[in-house]
Write a structure and sequence with these properties.
Blueprint (H helix, E strand, L loop, with lengths): L6 H14 L7 E3 L9 H11 L6 E3 L7 H7 L15 E3 L5 E4 L10 E2 L2 H13 L5 E4 L10 H4 L3 E2 L1 H9 L4 E6 L6 E5 L2 E5 L6 E4 L6 E4 L2 E7 L5 E7 L5 E3 L2
Parallel strand pairs: 1-2, 4-6, 5-7, 6-8, 8-10
Antiparallel strand pairs: 3-4, 9-10, 11-12, 13-14, 14-15
Length: about 240
Amino acid sequence: MHYMPNTADYLRRTIDRLHRMHPRPGVILATGDLAERGSPHEYRRLRSILNRLEIPYFLVPGNHDDREALRRAFRDHRYLSTFENHAGYAFDAWPLRIIALDSTDPRHIGGYVDHERLAWLDAELSAHPRRPTILALHHPPFRTGVPAMDAHGFVNVEALGEIVRAHPQIARIISGHVHTVLMRPWNGTVACTAPSTSPQFVIGRSRLGIGVEAAGMLLHEWNFNAEVRTYIARLESSDEQQIA
């Protein structure tokens, strides 16, 4: 017996919620912690659920994921294997460009980007300086205010900040990791974290210092005025509330 939510059931309900949206999102980015232990069994289960999606989706590994097991389970997602040492990729199929930066390393719980990844990111951004871009990674690059999270740090985050500041076409930085909604101005853009697709215990202002956040997702809407608007969509509600 356990007291954790049925995350698989909530993910199925999240997919149903996505399919009911009008208009539907053009693409889905899952920003990591796709499994708890990164086992092949977990990824087979995840794959069986995501197969229901009628919307293209892309995966970003998190610190709970095993990169190689993820690649094996989703071997048709070839973008995960572009590089041997990380799972970064870029897509230009939409007017809004998407770059995924792998911020994971087996030796670190916190964020980690090495010089190879940073050089690749800088080159990708330099190649398309006028294309509005979403930068996705698992670990938020800012301090969250959650001591247990911030204690793990983010290796080379200052160098990442310099690259972001040098490329103003980055309209949003989106991440996961803390499983709650946070939003910060960061090096000339807006960085945010997404909620979990199942209810989560989060740091709150209650007497116990914790609260429960409802299941949900972030929705990023781009228009041809080169504006990006970010909404929070809760699983149990049909409303989408703009937050940035």
